[in-house]
Write a structure and sequence with these properties.
The chain has 227 residues and is an alpha/beta fold. It has helices at residues 21-34, 42-45, 52-61, 70-82, 95-104, 117-126, 150-159, 173-181, 214-226; strands at residues 8-11, 18-19, 90-91, 108-112, 136-137, 166-170, 185-189, 207-209. It folds into two domains: 3-19 and 90-226, HAD superfamily/HAD-like (Rossmann fold); 21-82. Strand 4, helix 6 (117-126) and strand 5 form a beta-alpha-beta unit.
């Protein structure tokens, strides 16, 4: 059964659709240097990227968010990142061909991310992706965000897709939890920002991919169950 048995593919943004780690790492290291601290290696920063600004500031400064110095640092980090959104960020290798293949088959694709809209939308615009996406749900589009299933359900509604015939691809446990709660298939992107402490095979996903193009072969093999 072909992949076209699926109605839609939804992607997490950071660590799944886009390799945003270089620009987020750049912003964090600029902030560290501003505060007279040594920069961190890219390898140290990368596994924390999918968890957002709070996680990155905690990593860089070893501060709890309740610390009065934390929020000013987080706001400065966000300002630095906003100024460098698309400095090095790109689609993951092979993802451009995946999107083209989905579009050629008439399968809608969209983005559901916990990243706020004021960062998500200009980033997708800079890479000329927002006009192609069937929907974009950001972390502040609704009153709730992942792991709550509502963002995925709203995305499916906007697309006109049956959740049971849709797949969500992400690189964090909350992505799998949200997809399963929404009645969608969940795929883990192992090329994303997984840390050594992550146990993706224990998250209850329906499948695992190590390269973007494996999404298409997975959809082809699983399509019979979605039809």
């Amino acid at each position: 059964m072909p992949a076209t048995s699926f109605h839609a593919v939804l992607f997490d943004l950071d660590g799944t659709l886009l390799d945003t780690a270089p620009d987020l790492a750049y912003a964090l290291n600029v902030l560290l240097q501003e505060q007279d601290r040594a920069p961190l290696s890219f390898e140290t920063i990368r596994p924390h990227v999918s968890h957002g600004a709070t996680a990155l500031v905690k990593l860089g400064f070893a501060l709890d968010p309740s610390n009065p110095h934390f929020e000013p640092l987080r706001q400065r980090f966000l300002a630095l990142y906003k100024a460098n959104l698309a400095r090095e960020t790109r689609l993951f290798e092979g993802m451009a061909a995946v999107l083209e293949d989905l579009e050629s088959r008439g399968i809608a694709w969209g983005v559901v991310t916990n990243k706020p809209a004021w960062l998500t939308e200009p980033l997708l615009d800079a890479l000329e992706l927002r006009r192609r996406a069937a929907c974009v749900i950001s972390g502040d589009s609704l009153a709730v965000k992942k792991p709550h299933p509502e963002p995925l359900l709203v995305a499916c509604k906007q697309i006109g897709a049956d959740p049971a015939r849709s797949v969500y691809v992400g690189d964090a446990e909350r992505d799998v939890a949200a997809a399963r709660a929404a009645g969608m298939r969940a795929l883990v992107a192992h090329f994303g920002y997984l840390g050594t402490e992550d146990r993706p095979h224990e998250w209850g996903a329906h499948g695992h991919i190590t390269r973007p193009d494996e999404l298409l072969s997975w959809m082809n093999s699983e399509g019979r169950d979605a039809s």
